[in-house]
Each structure stands twice: as C-alpha cells, then as structure tokens.
Amino acid sequence: MTDNNLEYKYSKRSKKWKLIVLGLIVALVAVIIVCLNIGYAPISFSEILTILGKQIPIVNGALNSSSISPVTESIIMQIRLPRILAGALVGAGLAAAGVMYQGVFRNPMADSYLLGASAGASFAYTLAAIYVGSLTLTVFELGIFQIVAFAGAILTVFLVYFMSRTGNKVPITTLLLSGIVVNIFILALQTAFELRSGKDLTGIIAWIAGGGFTTITWNSVLAVTPFVVVGILIAYFFTKDLNMLSMGDDTAQHLGVNTERVRQILLLLGSLVTAAAVAISGVIGFVGLIIPHMTRLIIGPDHRILLPTSAIVGAIFLVLCDSLARVATGASELPVGVITALVGTPFFIYLLRKRKTSYSL
Description:
The structure is a single chain. The chain is mostly helical. It has a single domain, classed as Orthogonal Bundle (ABC transporter involved in vitamin B12 uptake, BtuC), CATH 1.10.3470.10. It has 15 helices and no strands. Helix 4 (70-105) runs parallel beside helix 9 (218-236), helix 5 crosses helix 12 (259-281) and helix 6 (139-164) packs across helix 12. The longest helix has 36 residues, at 70-105. It is globular, with a radius of gyration of 21 Å.
C-alpha cells in the first residue's frame, strides 16, 4: 500500500512538472512573437505570423503574403528573429549553467559570472578576436572561437574551485572572494592586451559589456545551438546525482555517486555552455544567479525539473531584457548586460543580506 501511495504521488508530481514545462514553452513562444513586434519599424502581428508561416512549406501555399514587402520580411527574418532566438539560447544556457554550478557547489550564490567562467571565456575570445580575426565570423570560425572561449572558461572555473576548496567543502566566503580576485585579475589582463593591440576596439568593448546581440546573424544561432542544447541535455542525465549531492558528499557517496567525477563533468558542461553563450553575446551577468534561485523558490529544489524550467525561464528573461535594451534609450541601444546588471545587482544584495546570518565577511 505504501509503495502504491508513493507511486501515485510521484505520478501526480510528474504530471504537474510536465504541465509547468509545457506552460513555460507556450509562454516562451508567445514572448518571442511579441518581441518580434518590438522595434522602430512598425510591423503588425498579422504580418509577423504570415512571415513566420511562409517558412513552413505546408502552410506557405495557404497564405496571402502579397501585401508584405521584402524589406518587412527581411527585418523579421534577418534581423529580429535570429537575434531573439540567440537571446533565448544564451539565456537558457546561462541559466542552466547556473543550476549546474549551484548544484555542484551546493550554494545558490554560484554562477558563471561570479565564478569567473564568463570572464575567462571573454578573455580567451577577446585574444582570438584581436590576434586572429574579427567579431563577424562564419559558423565554422565561430565554432573554433567557442572552443577557445571554453578553454578560458574551464581553466578559470577550476582555478576558482581549487582556490576555494577546503577539504571537501567550498565555503561561500572563500568562493566569492576567489571569484572576485580572479575576475579582477582577468579583467586587468584583458585590458592590457586590448591596449597593447593598438587596434580599434570599439566593437570588442561593446561586446564585452553584453552588446554582442547587435551583431547577431543566423551563423551565430547555428554556431551556439549545438553547444547549448547538447550541454543541457547531457547535464540532465546528472540531475539525480545533483539531488544526491545536495544531501552532502558522504550521503551521496553512500548512495553510489562518484562525487568528484560528477563535479568535474558538470563543471565542464557548465563552462562549455557558458563559453558558447559568451562567444556570441559577450559577458552577461546575473542570469545564472537570478533565474535558478527564483525558479527554485517556485518549483522546489529537485534538479530534474529545476534544470529544464530554469533554462526556459532564462530564455524568456533574456529575450525580454534584450527587447528592452533595444528600445530603452531611443535611437541607440543599451548592451543587454546593462539591463541584467540593473536587475541582478539588487537581487544579489538581497541574497547576501538573506544569508548574512550564515557567514560573516
């Protein structure tokens, strides 16, 4: 009877999770369509839906698109849609990476920005952009640059990890201080290399501030998709291990989890996804901090549902932030990193104040 009750409760909870994920996917699609309408060229929703429908062979023949100009179609298909999809992928990747890092360190303060993964990826990518090529690349070149960024991210994360580790624990104070020190050091190195290059670095400086979305093309979308999607899918297979890690290393080991191996794999995956995102968007802070924490408050700590829901919520969040960045200041665009920082900094202060009884700086 007890087993039947447990099975019934799990089945009921599983159905609830599926409905939540389905609802979030519908919300994401709705946000994408709404954000396609945002911009200085007025395009109606009927025109947007017609243009999108034309891309589907089955629907194309039934649509009357004679009233839509080539310019309007180009704005949607070549400018707004790839940028929005890239924003969704980057938001999903950064949020998922945040879940991985927070699960590995058993700490809601961990994310790719604070751990230095974004800074390491940015530094490696900037070096490649300065000495090898530009920020406008083919799909293959973007893939190579993402691998370079991944190397920078993973080296930085493991450096912070080993600097912070005390025995089998990673104290929050040590983690934050190590992340801050490494971030400052990398920023100093990056600035030195930028000044030494003697090149016009206007594009790179804007990209570093999270302004990479201004140069997004379909090549960017194609380059980032496999890294983000495959990274999140592989990480999902370790969500049960993350649940066990949350109970402590000793408990996880007694349950058969190779804790060190799981940590290293998830650090690699988190850094891979972060590097892919940074390579097309620049450094965007706080997405991996805010989204997992907010999602955890709503749906609970089970990583089997936390990872996919955080990814979808992260996609929605960054698409909205980027759309706001496009129109917030009139003629010029704000880097999306500015918007996420304005939202994320107060939230980070809130988390610090909430946890101040647990540690002292």
